Amino acid sequence: MWILRVASGTMLGMAAVAAVVGAGSAVALTENAPSSPTTIAPPDSSMAPPWQNGRNNDAVSRGFEFTVPDADNLADFHGDPAHPALSLYVGGNYFFAMAPLVQAFEKKYPEYKGRLYWETLPPGLLVRQMKAGGRVTVGNMTWTVKPDVYLAGLGAVKKQIEDGLLQAPAVPYVTNTLTIMVASGNPKGVKSLADLDRDDVKLAMPNPEFEGIARQIQSSLEKAGGKDLAQKVYHDRVGRGGTLLTHIHHRQTPLWIMQGRADAGVTWQSEAMFQEQAGHPIGHVDIPAYQNTTAIYAGAIVKGTQHRKAAQRWLDFIRSNEGVAIFKQYGFQRYEGKGA
């Protein structure tokens, strides 16, 4: 039996514009093959999402595989949406940690093997999808998967508890800090946040409308150069094209830098670490502690979930020693504060 999976890289409706415009293309064609696809591609196709060669897909039987990274690609949707045993809406900036996390979780709880579904969009867009009943449209395809767990910054999780979408308590698990992502070798010689106001440095920056990281970045910009620097980066330069605002910064910022469309962008340091570990032509510039901002990641169970036991198991797992050890591979640190 042949199964056709076709995905567009353009998000319509209540979701986002997916970042799938890459530097090369790859087509993977196999029949009923659960293993990684065979890829026919030019050497630079690895620059295009999804970057992980199928490892972030939890489906056991893949059927007919068709992926063209610069044209047909569903980078931030993972697994089989048909009757999952656990559905996770995950703030996108640790999409790369999800494959090892899911693998370890399923080893601990084999009954969930191949039955997890997760999305890694920006938290604000995931909220829009929750309010739409879990329904989402990507290109020409529409489907519905209601979440069991929502995972984002602690502040965002608390807000959704207050708004009645999630159940208390919010469960914090790891922390993260900011960095300046640049092209490998840092050809523009960016040294600090203050350099982001230079006319010769084109920026890719998260959109404050729905990407929570933008608030932390603005805070750090103010620490480095006052409200004037934040105004220039996030308003003045946007108006004259010096700052490009992303829809999905964890995909678009590194991709635009690799394509030469941007020279730098502020991201979570874990995202730069992943790109470097993947061998992509990406580097980073450290932001000193007195200018940096720390994010606390948290999760909570969605009201009305049909998979409460699985949801609680996931929240317990990601803050366990085993779960935190996986996060630490990408520079995250254990949350040491009190529970929320």
From TrEMBL:
<dbReference type="InterPro" id="IPR050682">
    <property type="entry name" value="ModA/WtpA"/>
</dbReference>
<dbReference type="Pfam" id="PF13531">
    <property type="entry name" value="SBP_bac_11"/>
</dbReference>
<dbReference type="GO" id="GO:0030973">
    <property type="term" value="F:molybdate ion binding"/>
</dbReference>
<feature type="signal peptide">
    <location>
        <begin position="1"/>
        <end position="28"/>
    </location>
</feature>
<feature type="region of interest" description="Disordered">
    <location>
        <begin position="32"/>
        <end position="54"/>
    </location>
</feature>
<protein>
    <submittedName>
        <fullName>Glycine/betaine ABC transporter substrate-binding protein</fullName>
    </submittedName>
</protein>
<keyword id="KW-0732">Signal</keyword>
<dbReference type="GO" id="GO:0015689">
    <property type="term" value="P:molybdate ion transport"/>
</dbReference>
